[in-house]
Amino acid sequence: YVNKSFALNNGLAYVQNGSVFMKGNDTTWLADGKFRNSVQISSILQYNTGLFILDINCAPWGSTIWPAWCSRGPLTGEIDILEGVHDNEHNQVAWHIYRCSLTPEPNLPALNSQNNTDCDSMIPPNAGCGVQEWSRASYGEDFNLQSGGVYVMKWDENGIAVWSFFHAAVPADIVCGTPNPYTMGFTSSCS
C-alpha cells in the first residue's frame, strides 16, 4: 500500500463530482513477484460498537483483485463486510476472531458458520468463519453492472449483523440519514 501523498500524486486516490475514487495501479507492467501499488485507508479511532455504512458504485473485479471493506482490531481480529477475491461473483462476509490463547476457553461460545467451525485467527491458515451471500449482484460484474449497492454492519452487545442492498432497494431510513437496524430485519434474539 502506498502513502497518501503518493496515492494523490499518482491518481490512485481522488475526488471527482463528489465521489471518492480509490484504485490500484492498472497501467504499469510488473515483473514476476512484484506487488502492484494500491490504496488502503484506515480510521485513526478504534470502535467497539456502532453502525457502519458503505455506499459503493463500483468495486474492482477480476483476476488478481482482492477488494475488501473490513474492520480490524488492534491485534489480529477482523470482520470482512465486503470481500471479493479474483473473479468471484458473490460477496464473502467473514469473521476472524482473536483469542489471546490457543487454549480453548470454556466460557466462550462456539463460533460456527457455513464454511468453517473455528473462527480463531490464531489457528492457521486464519480462514475465519465465512458466509457467502447468495446474490450474484453482491460482488463482481453483476454488482458493477447494477451500479453497486450499500453495505451495512451493526456491531453491539447483541452481536454482529451485516446487510447488503441494491441501490434501488436501500431502506428509506438509510437514505434519510437515520439508519435503524430493526427495520432491516435484525432481531435481538438472533445469535
Automatic annotation (TrEMBL):
Any Gene Ontology biological process: glucan catabolic process
Pfam families on file: GH16_XgeA
Stored InterPro entries: ConA-like_dom_sf (IPR013320), Glycosyl_Hydrlase_16 (IPR050546)
Top-level division of the source organism's lineage: Eukaryota
Segments passing through the bilayer: none
Name used for this protein in its record: GH16 domain-containing protein
Organism: Dendrothele bispora (strain CBS 962.96)
